[in-house]
């Protein structure tokens, strides 16, 4: 914030303190507060308040006014806390008793203001801003503010309650910090090293937590648990162990009560405790509490609890195994034979007999199993083979196929056609592909997956999940008959799905083909099967699909097919495929009305160019791609085109096969040849046009590439500039180059006249603005790329969002308000 802004500050303070004026919006006030923070961080001690007495007058005026707007009062409270964040400034506030007046809510002229949540949150935020030194803590303790903060912990506004919790934790943390304990060890410091009122404050906070957990009021219990979890995760010793000892008894009561609405919050508390030294000390009973929450699997809440425990990163192994056994019970129960039903608990059977709870339990069971599979968890009490069989049986039941022995199950009727369980089950089946022990089930697994792909009843989202599972099993566990399975079983189904009436299904099918082609890139048999089976023709025909998303996916699939064919040197078929692909893709880039397919085309060319097999074949098309992509109205197409240009530059300048044919030539000659290729491709026109594009990301990217090019040309001493002349007439960037050069020359001439110096060559240089041809190095020199890059990195609103602009807007709004009042009369 410069001196101009500071000069506007008194007037802005007067406007904000005037109750007749409409207050600025909340965003403007927050931005103004941000500038105060920045200014405060740059100033030393009491410099700001000493040089800007208007701030103290503003704060006093707002707090004493009987008609203050809640938004202005909230802003003032936050600002006061910010300005009192050093001991010197706090002393200035204290001299006239202003600080007590500001934060003593009973002293305000209008007590109803406290009913506004923004005022309460501003009050808390002000104290948070202030709590940077011991005097601030002394002020809070000495004026009874801890009690008010504790009351706000149970505020009806969730935002205010959360802010109160943060402030209480900050206070506790501040009490145990090194600057409060006279340099002694934090953990080993005794209470005698602290002031009595600080000790009383910490006791008051911890007693409030115990009282909240012992309360019969559910919201109060929840807030107490949230504060406890924050303390455990944010504070250190001795606060953690002291508080845990006090809350252990009420915590045990809450755990044993088994209230379903508290399970999530209780788990959060215990998870926080797992990350502290409390876990290693048996007297704190952290592990016992978690085990008590699980129970023996006979309570309704234990399944939810088990699902949460399975997800914990730091969890005792014994406890995790128990949670795993419990969470798998619903899955096992659904696939259990009638004679084994006696072993299943009554609570679980009752829940599975009701549709909503049945689906919920099975989804919990499946998602937990998938999570365990991602870590390749070693199951002990039950084999992974049995678990996988249960998942397969569940998926069959969802599609309407159920063994006669299980037809009695109520769950069967709930599961038929249930997309939620199908999607969850397919995710789990895919995750199980990491286990080598179940490879003998591969035939059954692919059988179920093919049934889903072939079923006319499969939902589009279920088919997408099926494709993902198929890909994982093909990639993770390749088998001898893989190619036969793909050619005879999978490809016919995919071809059928490519004709599906639902565009989402066609899109998912193409995405799957793309991913499969990428995954099996080095497999010549797959590439050959792709051509022989006729899938390539299907992919090419999809380039003309009626839906833009499908055309984009088709472009990606064809692109991967071309890449795979070129890598395997399938020369005859690949040459025909590439020719057809280029024709259709160029038509899409020049004619398609939707952006997604055009973006995909440029990305496909970039992918091809990154390889080393297709460079020569693409040479004739690159110029058109750069020209069409660079002039596209979609900014993302232009960005992808610049990425293509970057790859082209890297490939050419690192002596790729087609970039430099004469290996006996000097390095400078080879570099010149590469630049000539760029010129022929139209790369320079692309970069210079993009530099002055209306989309800032495009300008940034072009500028970065030109800076790189400027560095390379500057490092090449013997560069033949006559071969790198560009025509600057008749295009936008050329006019801009000429204009900038003329401005520079006029500025030089002005300086020369001022200094009394004249030069005979000035007129000759100034004539450049009317010439047609300029060399590339000269253009790069004319453009101040470093300054352009600096300006581009600034936010787009760095001018209008400046503190000066903000203050001027506030003053302008106030002036217009006064004019409107006069007009009324």
Gross morphology: flat
Report the end-to-end length measured between terminal Cα atoms: 39 Å
Query: Helicity, in percent?
Result: 55-70%
Q: Summarize the main sheet.
A: 2 strands, antiparallel
Determine Rg (CA atoms, Å): 36 Å
Q: State the secondary-structure class.
A: mainly alpha
Roughly what fraction of the amino acids lie in strands?
under 5%
Number of helices: 43
Low-pLDDT residue spans = 181-192, 338-342, 656-664, 762-769, 819-825
On the 0 to 100 scale, the average pLDDT is 83
Question: What order do the helices and strands come in, and which of them pair?
Answer:
Layout: H1 3-17, H2 26-42, H3 47-51, H4 54-64, H5 70-83, H6 87-95, H7 98-103, H8 117-130, H9 134-142, H10 145-152, H11 158-175, H12 196-213, H13 218-234, H14 239-257, H15 263-274, H16 286-294, H17 302-311, H18 317-327, H19 329-334, H20 346-352, H21 355-374, H22 384-398, H23 410-415, H24 419-431, H25 442-454, H26 460-476, H27 482-497, H28 503-519, H29 524-532, H30 535-542, H31 548-567, H32 571-591, H33 595-610, H34 615-630, H35 635-653, H36 667-681, H37 683-691, H38 696-715, E1 725-727, H39 732-754, H40 762-766, E2 773-775, H41 776-782, H42 785-793, H43 803-824
Antiparallel strand pairs: 1-2
Helix pairs in contact: 1-4, 1-43, 2-5, 4-5, 5-8, 8-11, 9-12, 10-11, 11-12, 11-13, 12-13, 12-14, 13-15, 14-16, 15-16, 16-18, 17-18, 17-21, 21-24, 22-24, 24-26, 25-26, 26-28, 28-31, 30-31, 31-32, 31-33, 32-33, 32-34, 33-34, 33-35, 34-35, 34-37, 35-38, 37-38, 38-42
Subcellular location: Cytoplasm
Protein name: BRCA1-associated ATM activator 1
InterPro entries: ARM-like, ARM-type_fold, BRAT1
């Amino acid at each position: 914030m410069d001196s101009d802004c500071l000069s506007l500050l008194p007037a802005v303070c007067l406007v904000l303190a005037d109750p007749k004026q409409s207050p600025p919006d909340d965003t403007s006030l927050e931005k103004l507060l941000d500038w105060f923070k920045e200014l405060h961080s740059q100033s030393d001690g009491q410099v700001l308040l000493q040089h800007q007495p208007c701030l103290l007058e503003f704060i006093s005026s707002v707090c004493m006014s009987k008609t203050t707007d809640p938004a202005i009062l909230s802003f003032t409270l936050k600002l006061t806390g910010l300005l009192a964040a050093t001991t010197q400034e706090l002393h200035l506030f204290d001299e006239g008793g202003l600080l007590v007046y500001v934060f003593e809510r009973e002293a305000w002229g209008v007590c109803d203001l406290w009913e506004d949540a923004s005022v309460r949150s501003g009050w808390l935020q002000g104290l948070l801003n202030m709590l940077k030194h011991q005097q601030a803590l002394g002020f809070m303790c000495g004026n009874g503010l801890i009690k008010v903060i504790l009351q706000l912990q149970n505020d009806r506004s969730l935002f205010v309650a959360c802010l109160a919790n943060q402030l209480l934790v900050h206070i506790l943390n501040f009490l145990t910090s090194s600057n409060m304990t006279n340099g002694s060890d934090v953990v080993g410091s005794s209470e005698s090293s602290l002031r009595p009122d600080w000790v009383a404050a910490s006791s008051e906070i911890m007693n409030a937590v115990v009282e909240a957990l012992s309360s019969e009021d559910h919201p109060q219990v929840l807030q107490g648990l949230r504060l406890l979890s924050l303390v455990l995760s944010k504070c250190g010793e001795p606060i953690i162990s002291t508080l845990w000892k006090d809350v252990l008894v009420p915590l045990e009561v809450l755990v044993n009560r088994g209230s379903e609405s508290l399970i999530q919050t209780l788990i959060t508390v215990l998870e926080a405790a797992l990350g502290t030294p409390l876990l290693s000390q048996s007297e704190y009973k952290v592990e016992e509490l978690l085990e008590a929450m699980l129970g023996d699997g006979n309570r309704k809440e234990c399944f939810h609890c088990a699902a949460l425990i399975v997800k914990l990163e730091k969890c005792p192994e014994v406890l995790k195994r128990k949670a795993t056994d419990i969470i798998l019970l619903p899955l096992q129960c659904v696939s259990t034979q009638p004679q084994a039903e006696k072993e299943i608990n009554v609570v679980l059977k009752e829940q599975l007999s009701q549709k909503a709870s049945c689906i919920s339990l099975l989804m919990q069971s499946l998602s937990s199993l998938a999570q365990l599979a991602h870590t390749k968890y070693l199951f002990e009490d039950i084999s992974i083979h049995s678990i996988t069989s249960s998942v397969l049986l569940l998926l069959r039941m969802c599609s309407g196929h159920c063994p006669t022995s299980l037809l009695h199950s109520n769950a069967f009727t709930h599961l038929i056609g249930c997309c939620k369980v199908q999607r969850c089950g397919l995710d789990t089946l895919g995750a199980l592909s990491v286990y080598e022990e179940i490879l003998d089930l591969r035939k059954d697994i692919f059988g179920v997956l093919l049934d889903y792909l072939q079923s006319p009843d499969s939902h589009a989202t279920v088919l997408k999940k099926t494709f993902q599972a198929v890909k994982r099993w093909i990639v993770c566990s390749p088998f001898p008959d893989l190619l036969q399975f793909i050619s005879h079983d999978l490809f016919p189904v995919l071809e059928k799905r490519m004709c599906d009436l639902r565009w989402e299904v066609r899109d998912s099918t193409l995405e799957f083909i793309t991913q499969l082609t990428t995954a099996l890139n080095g497999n010549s048999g797959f590439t050959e099967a792709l051509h022989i089976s006729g899938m390539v023709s299907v992919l090419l025909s999809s380039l003309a699909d009626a839906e833009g998303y499908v055309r984009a996916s088709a472009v990606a699939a064809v692109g991967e097919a071309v890449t795979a064919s070129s890598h395997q040197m399938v020369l005859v078929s690949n040459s025909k495929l590439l020719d057809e692909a280029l024709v259709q893709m160029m038509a899409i880039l020049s004619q398609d009305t939707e952006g997604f397919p055009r973006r995909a085309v440029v990305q496909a060319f970039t992918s091809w160019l990154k390889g080393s097999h297709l460079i020569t074949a693409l040479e004739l098309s690159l110029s058109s791609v750069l020209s069409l992509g660079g002039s596209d109205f979609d900014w993302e197409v232009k960005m992808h085109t610049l990425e293509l240009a970057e790859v082209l530059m890297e490939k050419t300048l690192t002596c790729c096969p087609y970039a430099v044919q004469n290996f006996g030539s000097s390095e400078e000659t080879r570099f010149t040849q590469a630049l000539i290729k760029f010129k022929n491709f139209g790369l320079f026109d692309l970069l210079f046009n993009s530099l002055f594009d209306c989309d800032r990301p495009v300008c940034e990217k072009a500028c970065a590439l030109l800076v790189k090019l400027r560095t390379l040309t500057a490092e090449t001493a013997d560069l033949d500039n006559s071969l790198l002349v560009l025509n600057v007439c008749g295009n936008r960037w050329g006019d801009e180059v000429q204009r900038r050069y003329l401005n520079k020359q006029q500025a030089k001439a002005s300086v020369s006249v001022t200094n009394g110096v004249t030069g005979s060559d000035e007129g000759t240089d100034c004539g450049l603005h009317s010439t047609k041809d300029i060399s590339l190095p000269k253009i790069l020199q004319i453009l101040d790329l470093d300054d352009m890059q600096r300006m581009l990195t600034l936010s787009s609103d760095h001018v209008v969002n400046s503190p000066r602009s903000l203050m001027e807007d506030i003053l302008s709004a106030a002036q217009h308000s006064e004019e409107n009042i006069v007009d009324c009369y």
